[in-house]
Structure formats: structure tokens, C-alpha cells
Amino acid sequence: MVQAHGISKTYGAQQLFAPMDLQIRSGERVAVQGPSGTGKSTLGNVLLGLVAPDTGRVERSARLRPHAFQKLYQDPVGSFAPHISLAQSLRDAARLHRCDWKAVQTRLAQLRVPEDLLARKPDQVSGGELQRIALARVLVAQPALLFADEPTSRLDPITQQEAIQVLLSAVQDTGAALMLVTHDPHLAAAVGTRTLKLAQGNTRACAG
Ligand code: ADP
Ligand code: MG
Fold it and tell me: What is the chain's pLDDT, residue by residue, as a tens digit (208 residues)?
């Protein structure tokens, strides 16, 4: 899906992920770990093409449409238009990606989002509810590669488990690749087919 050759990004005096090679195949689930500030989010942005690397290059599979590369944000508030109802945001996404509204409803039910919540604006639901709606919306795009940036860190443990289950079964159904940034080593071990560890000034890839 994605091949990165010698990528790095420099902000100020800090060079993030000292030139790194990385390859992500379809169906892979990569857990991304590392202390705050080591470039986990920036790595996702570079792989998705949202930020240009300062060295190296990223090749994304030419047979995939641009929408196949999707990101699930840690803080969902900024990813929803503030003055539009959640229903409208979801309907727009469904129309854009030619996704049946029934499928959206099924996803919302799996994520235990009552449909009447959708009449509200993004700032009128809880952080946990909004993150589950954000997950439903990103899955509407049927991503081939989903970069999920600490997507469940604001959810309580039960809701977190449910959201991860929905995420995993969605990527399994579609053969999508998942990169999951998480601080939770148990979650990383449970979800990842491999773990990528970022550290200050160097990068280490671990198998298993
Ligand atoms: P992580 O997700 O691992 O916490 P980030 O990728 O968000 O790390 O950030 C890595 C480093 O790069 C941090 O020191 C951060 O302050 C810096 N950084 C990230 N984005 C920018 C930016 N747009 N401008 C300047 N510095 C940035
Ligand atoms: Mg981050």
C-alpha cells in the first residue's frame, strides 16, 4: 500500500524518525508506540501525504484512490464542521463515498450510537460519543489504509474495547491496513501484527 524510503521530517532542531524505511502491506496492522513528541502523528501525516517529508519519498499504491488513505484523529472535535449537524456530516460522507445509509446505520448500532444523537452539532455530544461517530464516518470511506492516532484514548475502558472491536472487524472485513498509535502496550500487542517504536532521535522496528 505504502512504501517509504529514507523519510525524515525536521521541526526546529529536531529531526524526527531519523531517515527511515517503512513498508505497509494490505491487511497489516501496525501498532505505533513511542513517547510524546517522537513524531508518531507526523509519521502518519507523511505516510498519508498530508505533510511532505524533508528527506526521502513516499510511494502510495497507484491503484488506490486518494480517499483510500484515511486518518482517525485523537481529538475528533476539529475533524467535524462545527455548524453542521452530525447527521448531515455523515450523510455528506456517505454520498461522497457512495455508501448506503443502511450501512452507516449498522455501523452506528455496532458502536452503540443512538441515531437521535445525530440531530445535534459536534459540540453537543460527549467526547466519547463524537469519537465513535468519527469512527463510523471514517469507515464510510472504506479506507485501504487507516491511520488511527490514539483514537480511543478519551474513551472509558468498555467503550474503548467496543470501538477497537469495530475497528478491527472493519479492517478485517475489507483487508485494509491499520496503523494504530497507542500508549497502551497491551492494546499494541493485541492489535498489531507488528510494532513500530519511535524514540527520540532514532527509530526501531520490532517484529511480533
Ligand atoms: P507525537 O505524535 O509522537 O506526540 P508529533 O508528530 O505530534 O509527535 O510531534 C513531533 C515533534 O514535532 C514535536 O516536538 C512537535 O512539537 C513537533 N511538531 C509537530 N508538528 C509541528 C509543526 N507543524 N510545526 C512545528 N513543530 C511541529
Ligand atoms: Mg501525536
Answer: 999 999 999 999 889 988 899 999 999 999 999 999 999 999 999 999 999 999 999 999 989 988 999 999 888 888 999 999 999 999 999 999 999 999 999 999 999 999 999 999 999 999 889 999 999 999 999 999 999 999 888 788 888 888 898 899 888 888 899 999 999 999 999 999 999 999 886 544 444 4
Question: Is 170 domain-assigned?
Answer: no
Q: How far apart are CA 38 and CA 197, in angstroms?
A: 10
Given 98, 130, 148, the domain boundary residue is: 148
Looking at the structure of the chain, the number of domains it has is 2
Which listed ligand is nearest to 153 at the C-alpha? Answer: 2
160 lines ligand 1 (CB under 6 A): no
Q: CB atoms < 10 A from the CB of 82, how many?
A: 9
> In terms of residue numbers, what domain contains 21?
1-41+183-208
C-alpha closest to that of 77 among 136, 128, 18? 128
Nearest ligand atom owner, CA of 149: 2
**How many angstroms separate the alpha carbon of residue 146 from the centre of ligand 2?**
15
